Amino acid sequence: MTKKLSILGSTGSIGKQTLEIIEEHPEKFKVVGLAVMQNIDELEMQIQKFQPKLVAVFDEEKAQILASRISANIKICSGIEGLIEVATHDKADLVLNAVVGSIGLLPTLEAIRSKKTVALANKETLVAAGELVMKECLKNNVKILPVDSEHSAIFQCLNGEKITDISKIILTASGGPFREWSYEEIQSATFKEALKHPNWDMGKKISIDSATLMNKGLEVIEAKWLFHVDVDKIEVTIHPQSIIHSMVELKDFSILAQLGIPDMKLPIQYALSYPERIKGEVRRLDFKKVNQLTFTEPDVKRFPCLALAYKAIEIGGTMPCVLNAANEILVDYYLKNRIGFYDIAEYITRIMEVHQSFPYSTTEELQMLEQWVRSWIVNELR
Ligand SMILES: NC(=O)C1=CN([C@@H]2O[C@H](COP(=O)(O)OP(=O)(O)OC[C@H]3O[C@@H](n4cnc5c(N)ncnc54)[C@H](OP(=O)(O)O)[C@@H]3O)[C@@H](O)[C@H]2O)C=CC1
Ligand SMILES: CC(=O)[C@@H](O)[C@H](O)COP(=O)(O)O
Ligand SMILES: [Mn+2]
């Protein structure tokens, strides 16, 4: 049977690779909805090729320009309502969420409430509101299929295992572009240097997160919610080759790992085809060409963001939402050359000292908090 898909963030790195997989398997997958922020030129080409029934452009002006360019029988919507409409399209069997940032939270929640399976790349959703999202999954008997490479690896390792048998999750981290740089060198690193990831070609925000190791911190929080594991059982190891995508140690101390060439096509494809496996244009790992697989402890002095993420989830409540919101804003400032590399960690440290975490129960509370984070940072950096 053909699976029908809505793709949020179709013009991004994950979104485009998803469409390439769909193009390879037209008998298996069909696109019914696409959502983007503002890139209507790319979206227009995607519309011609995939003929979705519904598209959303977050930016209202751009949505209007697109409307003047394309056929009237494709519905165009905008704003957060548009994103939600695509996420809940009645024909969609699977919603792939690959937008960047916590803007992905509401469409994820609404997709779950509409009983859609969600293939989740947008890790910020689980960092900001993991507890709420997992409760909705339970209530609606809905599955989240991880797209993030480490979480896909863990998901694949756990196939057939009991979650209660997990003794430890070992998340691998490449170490990013500054793995071997001194503190002083990193201090003056430009955003262009930070964008040069050694192993993966990704969007700007996640590339900076990988350079600060905040990406791994966000992934620790993501793993806690996806696999119902306490953070003290989640370990990070620096594995510069990015061949082992993560590991699980079970209670009998058997360690399971998933390996492959660093290529997001595999985890994306697995989330699309699950529970089946399909053969696609994924690069094959030749074992004989792997010279060495190395593992070292992360250095939280040079990469304080990792420790901040552990601290935020240990405090719990609204603290991870504050960490995430502050990080999103500060990464944007860094990309605009307005702050230095270590200012990201510095301002996150300070806002976490100011914020009194509380147990939240609604997305409105989190949205108000995000607004507070933004005004706090704007004020500090004035
Ligand atoms: N890239 C990767 O290899 C990996 C990414 N991830 C995660 O996946 C997510 C996406 O990452 P990536 O693909 O790299 O990011 P990109 O920056 O490449 O793409 C982001 C996409 O989201 C869209 N978007 C942003 N804001 C909105 C909005 N308000 N409404 C609708 N669409 C929006 C963008 O549209 P537009 O083009 O119009 O701006 C674009 O299509 C992130 O959460 C990231 O952490 C996880 C693992 C690996
Ligand atoms: C491809 C993927 O899943 C990214 O999240 C990747 O893990 C980033 O690399 P780092 O290990 O450097 O964070
Ligand atoms: Mn990852």
Automatic annotation (TrEMBL):
Its EC number is 1.1.1.267. This is 1-deoxy-D-xylulose 5-phosphate reductoisomerase. NCBIfam families: Dxr, PRK12464.1. Gene3D superfamilies: 1.10.1740.10, NAD(P)-binding Rossmann-like Domain (3.40.50.720). NADPH binds at T11, G12, S13, I14, N39, N122, E124, G203. Belongs to the DXR family. Mn(2+) binds at D148, E150, E219. GO terms for molecular function: 1-deoxy-D-xylulose-5-phosphate reductoisomerase activity; isomerase activity; manganese ion binding; NADPH binding. GO terms for biological process: isopentenyl diphosphate biosynthetic process, methylerythritol 4-phosphate pathway involved in terpenoid biosynthetic process. It comes from Clostridium aceticum. InterPro entries: DXP_reductoisomerase (IPR003821), DXP_reductoisomerase_C (IPR013644), DXP_reductoisomerase_N (IPR013512), DXPR_C (IPR026877), DXPR_C_sf (IPR036169), NAD(P)-bd_dom_sf (IPR036291). 1-deoxy-D-xylulose 5-phosphate binds at K123, S149, E150, S174, H197, S210, N215, K216, E219. The gene is dxr. Catalyzes the NADPH-dependent rearrangement and reduction of 1-deoxy-D-xylulose-5-phosphate (DXP) to 2-C-methyl-D-erythritol 4-phosphate (MEP). It catalyses: 2-C-methyl-D-erythritol 4-phosphate + NADP(+) = 1-deoxy-D-xylulose 5-phosphate + NADPH + H(+).
